[in-house]
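Tutorial, part two.
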Amino acid sequence: MSLASQFLFGALVVAVMSVLVAQRHDPLPSLSAMTRAVFALFWLTVVALVVHSITRSIDFFGVVHVFYLAIVVSLPLTSFSLFLIGWARLRPTKRRLANLNYMLLFLGMLPAAFGYYATHIEPDRLQVDTQTILLSDVAAPIRIAVLSDLQTPNVGQHELDAVAAVIASEPDLIVIPGDFWAGDFEHFQKIRSDLAALLDDMLASTHHVVMVVGDTDGGDELRSLAEETGAVYLADDIWRHDVAGQMVTIAGTTIPQGERQMVDPDLLAQLNSTPADELTIVVSHRPDAALGLEASVPVDLVIAGHTHGGQVALPMFGPIVTFSDVPRSLAAGGAAVINGRAVYVSSGVGLERGQAPQMRFGVVPEVGLLLLEPA
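Running the prediction step on this input gives:
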């Protein structure tokens, strides 16, 4: 059990014990007793965060994870315990007096339902996001499937379903904008054959699969997968090929972490030398690459991922965080126009890993299908 989990468990125990002590002579779960329980839960959670921060064993996502567990696990368990304790100790004739307090305790249990949905249901609600984009340099319709942020430590049914959805969309071209898996080189070696099998399945349906590096995978590993399977890996380079009967130029970026808007100068020079009337697409893990492309650069479309649509989005507000400088409405997923060109951001298939809570809310996982049509 991790140190954070120990403190969360301790918060639950102390919260319940504080109520038991307070109710030695008054078994009705009072508002003051419930308040003490919630404060005990909160402050012990804070202590867990402080200890982890001092030992440098927790990052931003770890902080979020601890509070998430406090809200959807510890708080509902505390409320449920208080409910049982009070109900069992009250005489039937007095239970009606506790209706208000019991209603408050019931509300304290509701976050558990939210946690179950966000952790076990929405992350598997895979859908296909279809966008029609009109471009002047498109001579005939082109179908592009986008498989972004698979970000998986293991290939399971969810990943197989995502690839099946890509194949079922009958694309002319498949784009993978980074985070194809999550893990170090040693872990990559364990799942390499499974990742190669996914690429083989996609290449069997279309001859064109283009990949760029993200934050959780690795360039050398992607290059070796490309050499093994016949996929195309682009690292600040350009690939020019016939797709659906017309010549298409695709540039792939490698934007380092912390350099959100940077596009390699040599790659910019190559882009500026492409024919102005040829369909040109930039594939980048981070959508901020679109901000680094001036309107004069002859690029028709930017395809990116990275944001996961925020992974948690609130009604009438949208994603809480996006880790991107593009407009929040675009970082949430979908298509928009930046610097006079089309930009598509996929909310991705997988989840943030590491210390982050494994959940989605208000942002279902998706495979993108771009229908490029002549303008």
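The two ends are 58 Å apart (CA to CA). In part three we will examine how such features are distributed along the chain.
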